[in-house]
Structure of Cation-transporting P-type ATPase B:
Amino acid sequence: ATPTALMVGTGRGAQLGILIRGPEVLESTRRVDTVVLDKTGTVTTGRMALTDVLPAAGTDRALLLRLAGALEDASEHPIARAVAAAAAEAENGAGLPAVSDFANVPGLGVQGTVEGRRVLVGQEKFLADRAVELPRDLADAKAAVEASGRTAVTVAWDGEARGVLAVADTVKATSAEAVRRLRALGLTPVLLTGDNHAVARAVAAEVGIDAADVHAGVRPEDKAAMITRLRAAGRTVAMVGDGVNDAAALATADLGLAMGTGTDAAIEAGDLTLVRGDLRAAADAIRLARRTLATIK
Ligand code: ADP
Ligand code: MG
């Protein structure tokens, strides 16, 4: 009877929009007590929009957007797509300039040569690591953007900070309910993100995650280490993520849940795929696993 019940469990999962790698996954799903949620693309839509272009004193606004947009056009990151789309629109069909020596540094930013300038686009830390400091006006602009719960992207070229771009993401309509359902199952939700603390806290508050369970500014390589720490503390951890930068954490967790709307790398690293990218299916999966295995025992 055991294999049959497990097959029923996986079949029911498919109806709920949950793809289960194999029946053996149900056992770890049942034991989970902590659910770590990636922010961008998992709790939020990840469909970002550029809301502000804030040049440094003496920097041309159109040039700032064009150089940043050209560079971001080569990146798949949700922030990059928002910046590139707005920049392309501002060019009125003229097209964005070509980029050479492009490099993507996951969780930090992108760099490359555009119109003969060495351009950096990313986190303040990304610029600081390359010896570029923000002048007072840009530091103030960045703080104001972050205080409003948006993500500030800093832009530099030829060794000088040139501006701040503000991008806004929206929390998925289903995320707050998903967090309530996870709590109702006795699970502790945790937010994990490479984005800054102000944005992370704003999103956590909106969906009902405790401020003490927010881990922001976490580099991609440290996301997996965060999961390892939780497991070492005796937790049985599920990780839900969508990005290339979540793949290692998904593989490290007792249970990896990938958003079906996310990248192939995440889906390959996961044990379960939430086909519709709806976080409520994470709670459904755990409930289903508990029920299916209760039937067997
Ligand atoms: P998350 O953990 O929320 O999915 P990431 O780890 O992908 O976020 O990125 C963390 C941060 O790194 C972003 O919030 C952004 O500040 C910066 N960043 C990463 N890639 C880019 C990029 N292509 N352009 C600008 N900023 C970037
Ligand atoms: Mg993500």
Observations:
- The chain has a mean pLDDT of 93.
- The CA atoms of residues 9 and 15 lie 10 Å apart.
- The radius of gyration is 21 Å.
- The pocket of adenosine-5'-diphosphate (ligand 1) is lined by residues 38-40, 72, 75, 77, 79-80, 107-110, 121-123, 151, 153, 193-195, 220, 243, 245 (CB under 6 Å).
